[in-house]
Every structure is written in structure tokens, then in C-alpha cells.
């Protein structure tokens, strides 16, 4: 009886120690928990490396342009590693404005008049402290066009300016009518199909610095506007090169129809899903144009393209922008 009592006390003590250890260590410290976590991590890593992290597809109609980009803009051939915990496109687009660090940029504002009596707000970053281009008359100028409701305060615009500052370039942001706090003097606002305001801005900027290399970069609707301008103006433009990001293709006629209530319910969602797997709509056209290159990533958001564990700094889109404008300014003569 005494022996049985001692055995019970010993068993109780061992059980108590075991339970205390399990409570203290918890699920994540137990063998089963570690095995599950390790297995899930390995499976996720394999999926990420095989299906998410991929090299972009480079499409262009000229072998010389392709070689130029590979030599001077190598980011277009490197594997893009989206943020491992947020690689889905909608998540990246929603997350970027909240998580990405906003560089401090001090602007000089200029209001210019339009032919119809309106006004356009331009925010200049003159970069007068540039050591690479101390002569303002020859300092490269980058015209930046934000998205639909974007202004010079958007994080992606600020990062482009920050990277341009490192290169010694000057930037000017084209704010569409009425979006940057200036008074709207006419009933007219803006749309990507009307390039008159952009033509006015480009003419104005070029007249101020006719001897400086002049480039432009547009994001989302800003890119659509820029492409429409280039298609209309052709070789007469004073721009030596342009870069666009996250631009919709051939959206004018279809968007008006598909946004009608019944069509949206019956077709829009399905067609949008199908279009995601039909991204080759503009590819064949690009292959026929020696002056155009497409860089198609497998993942990334509309303006997100986040990368790294904690994506507070520059993104993949920012790196493409920096390398492209630097390549065109410093080596663009090779293409001619």
C-alpha cells in the first residue's frame, strides 16, 4: 500500500512536470507543432520559388533594343521576388500606400495657363544640388504622370523623384486639372483620351530646357495618357524616351459597355478573369514595333510590385524606372 502510494505520488509529479512543460512550451515548441510548421514552411517555399518568383517576360520588336535593355537595364531579366507574405496583386496594390516609406521631397509649384482658360499645376524638383549635372540647362528632365486620382504626393511618384535625385536628374510632376488643390477654372477636367493638356506641358517644359535630355514616365492612367500622346505625335515629340507602368490596353470602347449594370453582372467579372490569362493581347503588336518593349511580370500589383520581407523602400517598379531612365540618358545614343 505504501509502495502504491509512492508510485502514485511519483506518477503525479511526473505528470505535473510534463503538463507544466507543455503549457510553457506550447504548441509551437512541441514536436508535432515543429513538424507541422517545418512542413508548411518547406511546402510554401517550394510553391513560392516554383510559381511566384519568376523572371519577367521581355517582349520587343527589335533585337538591338532587347540587347540594349539587357545590357543597361538588367532588372528586366532578373527574377522578381514579390513580398513572400503579400504577393497577390490586389493585396500589393492596397498595401503599398500604407506600408511604403515616403521620401521627403520639396517642390516648387508652377501654374501654367491652357488655351481654353484653364490652368495646370506642375510640381518641380529642380535638384539644384546635383553634382553630376551642375549646369541646369543640360540637366536631364524627367516628366512624371501619376494615375487617375494621383498627384505629386503619391508614394510611387516620390520614390521616382528620390531615385532621379540620386542620378542627378530634375523632375517635374504633371498634376491633372483640379486634383492638386488648384482652382478648376473651366468645366473641363481630364481623361486619358485627350492629350491637349499633356502637349501643353511637354511644350512648356521643353521650351525651358531645350538642351537637356527629356524623358517621361507614366503610371496607370498617366501611362495611358502618355502612350496616347506618343501615338498621336510620333517622332515629332521632344521626348527621347518614355516608360509606362501598369497601363490598361484597349479599354476605351469596352469599358463603357462593360460598366453598364447588366453587362457588369453578366460579363465583366468573367471577362476580367479571362483577360488575366490572355495578357498576350498587346504582345503580338509589341513584337512588330522596334521602339517598344514590354516587361511582363508573373505577379505584382497595379502599382505595387512590392519585394523583400518588409517592403518599406523602393519596389521592383522603382528599380525598373531608375535603370531605364539612366540607361537612356547615358547610353541612349547606342540605339540610334
Any overview of this molecule?
Belongs to the AB hydrolase superfamily. AB hydrolase 4 family. One of its GO terms (cellular component) is membrane. The chain crosses the membrane at residues 25-49. The N and C termini lie far apart (102 Å). The strands form two sheets. This protein has a six-stranded mixed sheet with strand order 2-3-5-4-6-7, sandwiched between helices. A hairpin with a 5-residue loop joins strand 2 (108-113) and strand 3 (119-125). It is globular. It folds into four domains: 41-87, no CATH class; 108-249, Rossmann fold; 251-280, no CATH class; 283-334, no CATH class. The chain contains eleven helices and eight strands. The protein has helices spanning 2-25, 31-52, 63-72, 89-99, 155-167, 196-208, 221-233, 252-258, 261-276, 283-287, 316-331, and strands at residues 57-60, 108-113, 119-125, 141-145, 170-175, 214-219, 241-245, 293-296. It is α/β, with parallel strands linked by helices and 336 residues long.
How is the main sheet built? 6 strands, mixed
The coarse overall form would be globular
What level of helicity do the residues show? 40-55%
Cα-based radius of gyration, to the nearest Å: 27 Å
Number of helices: 11
Distance between the ends: 102 Å
How many structural domains are formed by the residues?
4
Give me the side-by-side strand order of the main sheet: 2-3-5-4-6-7
- The computed structural class is alpha/beta
Q: Which residue ranges are poorly predicted, with pLDDT under 50 across at least 5 consecutive positions?
A: 1-5
CATH class of the largest domain: Alpha Beta
At CATH level 3, the topology of the largest domain is Rossmann fold
| Second-tier CATH architecture of the largest domain | 3-Layer(aba) Sandwich
